[in-house]
Amino acid sequence: MLKLTINDKEIEVPRGTMLLDACQQAGADIPTFCYDPDLKLAGSCRMCVVEVQGRRNLQASCVTPCENNMIVDTESANVVEARKIILELLLARHKLNCMVCEKVGACKLQEYCYRYDVKESRFAGEAAHFTREDPNPFIERDYDKCIMCTRCVRACEGITGAQAINVKDRGHHAKISTIFDGKLADSSCVFCGQCIMVCPVGALTSKVSMGKGRPFEYEKVLTTCTYCGTGCMLELNVKDDTVVGVTSNRDAQLSPVNKGALCVKGRFGWDFIHYKDRLTTPLIRENGQLREASWDEALDYAANRLNAVKAQHGPDSIALFSSARVTNEENYLAQKMARVAIGTNNVDHCARL
Amino acid sequence: MTNTIEELEKDATVIFLIGTNTTENHPVIGYKIKKNVRENGAKLIVADPRRIELAEMADVFLQFRPGTDVALLNGIMNVIINEGLQDKDFIEKRTEAYEDMKQVVEKYTPEIVSAITAVPAEDIVKAARMYAAAEAGSLCYAMGITQHTTGTDNVKSCCNLALLTGNLGRPGTGVNPLRGQNNVQGACDMGALPVTYPAYQAVAVEANREKFEKAWGVKLPTAKGLMLTEAINAAYHGDVKALYCLGENPMISDPDSHHVEAALKKLDILIVQDIFLTETAQMADVVFPGVSWAEKEGTFTNTERRVQRVRKAVNSRGDARQDWQILSDMTTRLGYPNSYASPEEIFAEIRSLTPSYAGITYDRIEQTGLHWPCPTEEHPGTPILHTEKFSRGLGLFHAVEFKEAFELPDEEYPLILSTGRQLYHYHTRSMTRRAIALDTHRPENQVQVNQKTAAKLGILNGEKVRLTTRRGSIELKAQVTDILNEKLVFTFFHYGEAAANVLTQGEALDPIAGIPEYKVCAVRMEKII
Known about the structure:
The complex is a heterodimer.
Chain A: E1 2-6, E2 9-13, H1 19-25, E3 49-52, E4 59-60, E5 70-73, H2 77-91, H3 108-115, E6 139-141, H4 151-160, E7 165-168, E8 175-178, H5 194-198, E9 204-206, E10 219-224, E11 233-239, E12 242-247, H6 264-268, E13 283-286, E14 289-292, H7 295-313, E15 318-321, H8 328-342, E16 347-348
Chain B: H1 6-10, E1 14-18, H2 22-25, H3 27-40, E2 43-47, E3 60-62, H4 69-82, H5 88-94, E4 95-96, H6 98-105, H7 110-117, H8 121-132, E5 137-141, H9 143-146, H10 151-164, E6 175-177, H11 184-189, E7 196-197, E8 201-202, H12 206-216, H13 228-236, E9 242-246, H14 250-253, H15 257-266, E10 269-274, E11 286-289, E12 298-301, E13 306-310, H16 323-333, H17 343-353, E14 370-371, E15 395-396, E16 415-420, H18 436-441, E17 446-450, H19 451-456, E18 464-468, E19 473-481, E20 488-492, E21 521-527
Parallel strand pairs in B: 1-2, 1-5, 2-3, 4-15, 5-6, 9-10, 10-11, 16-20, 17-19
Antiparallel strand pairs in B: 7-8, 12-13, 13-14, 16-21, 17-20, 18-19, 18-21
């Protein structure tokens, strides 16, 4: 074990622990942009710098291994000044349209500028502009808001394995790009939206959710995805009794199968829920046409017709298709209905299809 | 799955995929396989008639002729046995009928199998050695294995291979069917099957019937029920007169759509319970509006047998009613009064009759779902099956001979048609056609065709073609590609507008599972001028 003193607090950590981890264990709130516990380390944004006694430079804590007897200050005057300058440098090219930004309230840049009282940038001047329409229907890419933390690049490679994007060019002109700087649809992108999940600012957002609600306006309801059999957990974003988006939860306890990773259907395929032609009333066919009916009328009609068939042709002339789409509870009731109320084992579902 | 999804990322050292296009149909499982291969150096064997995405990173890619799965797997086992790579200890202690299997497999030399499957003999040898040498070999399959007239044989062959190499009962091993739909595992577990009550308690066993008769307080039917495909055929022949269809869309999902339509039209009454007026609901006599998954409480069971919560996020609109309430109301009206207060109360009844679910409660799965079997409330669940013994005791080898598919290409219909799914749509597209981004991205059906075949027929990429089988024909765009060979075309079954199942045959099914042969039928393709 290694012994460290962090903000006057003594702490022991196993060898190999990074300083950021140790600081967090010691209760320090270290701001980070490029660091993500699920991704390869980048050590590029320098926001997590701390002051280590005896070291000439401030240390990026996410990539600095702990050493015995380190004495660390996480909010010294030097550290605060460095973080302010980093924020000012980022603001020099970050488009400030927070009033219409999807990420407002959940944006790390906004949070840290507030925390360190950074109101404007002294480095205003020639900033590169990147915004170009990407016509895909899923992911809004606004690289004028990008802070080049590269979390999207590392998530694309490390979580999804798509390797669709990377950093193009250097310095002021650096930007995130697909191969040949083309459209996402022409790259190896599979539109899983893991890039949106890890983006700390509003550079990457969901086009399907656009304008429907910002993070502080909706509640998240954790549930199991309705598409394939993998059983990913996802969060339905609910505002005014309406689903306005999907986010994911990366806690392995709450999201044991996927740990936040989703596919394109899970993340972007939710808007059928409120689609305009959802059935909202029972229907009965009359003179060849389906007409609206009350529940009592529809249920009685269906039950009487089934009972008539049963009386005339026996219970095995009736079949029931249950569904791989509905819950266990509903499947149980469906097969029970077939067996106890109709009196047949003619019950199956689409497992074979 | 005998094992869990996480093991494919962490524990498996060799992953053998056959008949699963994992990155399209189980994308998140696909990510995990890629990660294991890229970061841990796991070996990957992919057997598929198409050069699917994962084939690109495979150590061995076996591009075999559709429908020759048994031959291919027998060939692999032939090499393993001949080279003495089988797990003799496992075979001796945990299995039986090895000699019967061995006798059949002896005939399937790599050369003979190569002639049947069109896979080079040396690749068969390479795959055999790689899988047999695995510290932990996981075999995953999906409907590429099952949707054949020999589907059951194909599954048995997969089991044979895992038994032969002792790849069962340990982390990273297993025979792992990747199930396609959110709760297909749960629907089976719950006894929504013609031959079993919940937890696969066979209807034919008198003691089981007595147990459920006692619990439910009625005399239960003894006759074997009809499978879905049989029920449609019975309706066509006038033996089934009424059909209650809950959240299913057989007009698009079942084989030979014209036949399905004719069958549904002959019914005295068709009742459909759904959230949209699907192609099937449009033919119904009564339609009950149910609710979507975002509007209900309950549980789904995923492909690794993990029972997880479904939570209500929003209220349903209009007069739509909870599906469990509709079923409960109908059951009462059909003469069996019942009422439940909530899905949780139904789950309590399920637990009391379903030994593998007995220990699972809503409280226990509030955070993290549990794997069945979970017999008691103290039981931690069972992520890995068959660690000590199999359900029947010893693992049974099956001697399986290769049989050709039912409908092979001929002069009139010279190509093989396979159907399946794609990443951007789901099943009969009743949901994803209304998910605007998904449908904008993939608005219409396509048929994948090899460039040489396309050239021969004068077809350019994106041009309209007509596919015709003995059942019917559809028109759709050609996607010219080199991921499949000249004899094969592949299309997607999601699209009602160019419905693949107009083409498929429902006449010959797997004799045990009743599954249709969606991966092989004979088809003709022509350019539309």
